[in-house]
Amino acid sequence: QKEVEQNSGPLSVPEGAIASLNCTYSDRGSQSFFWYRQYSGKSPELIMSIYSNGDKEDGRFTAQLNKASQYVSLLIRDSQPSDSATYLCAVNPLGFGNEKLTFGTGTRLTIIP
Amino acid sequence: DAGITQSPRHKVTETGTPVTLRCHQTENHRYMYWYRQDPGHGLRLIHYSYGVKDTDKGEVSDGYSVSRSKTEDFLLTLESATSSQTSVYFCAISEDRGWETQYFGPGTRLLVL
Prior knowledge:
By secondary structure, chain A is mainly β. Chain A has strands spanning 4-5, 11-14, 19-25, 32-38, 45-50, 54-58, 61-66, 71-76, 85-92, 102-103, 107-112.
């Protein structure tokens, strides 16, 4: 079982709709969770970080964390064509003191105008 | 790209040739990382550094070495390049703790013939 799993997609969502991206992780000790956006041919850029159970909102983006279910998600409201990208989930396994992030393989999102 | 540069940005080399990639940061961040990104595998950690002369291995460190003689520079060396090392290489930095947000450089595309 991979440490961080994401559906590879592609996930197609109509413009203006809500895009829902999901990520599961295997290490129950994980404490830090991140969503990165990566445009084709570019480097990953941070969208959201979340450390506590529940929801965290930033503009059109909402990250949701459920440590009991080992599940983290990213919701994008009012999806725009500029949101078309690959979204990477990253997790810090083994908790604080471990210096490394483990990345999922990413979900490719396409917003259909 | 958060004050991170990588050089070269593109390189074509032949099997058996040594190759050195450079990552330079102007943020004075303590942690620096080298990742490779390949289709179907996502971002995988090669090596990382938690200070000058302090480095450690990641999950795919075989065939790679690193050095950090100054806070701002982190070098990745392929001692004898192989075709399996054809990839996109990303450098990342993190301010204080490795499990905190990582910021990525623009990447280096390496082709080993």
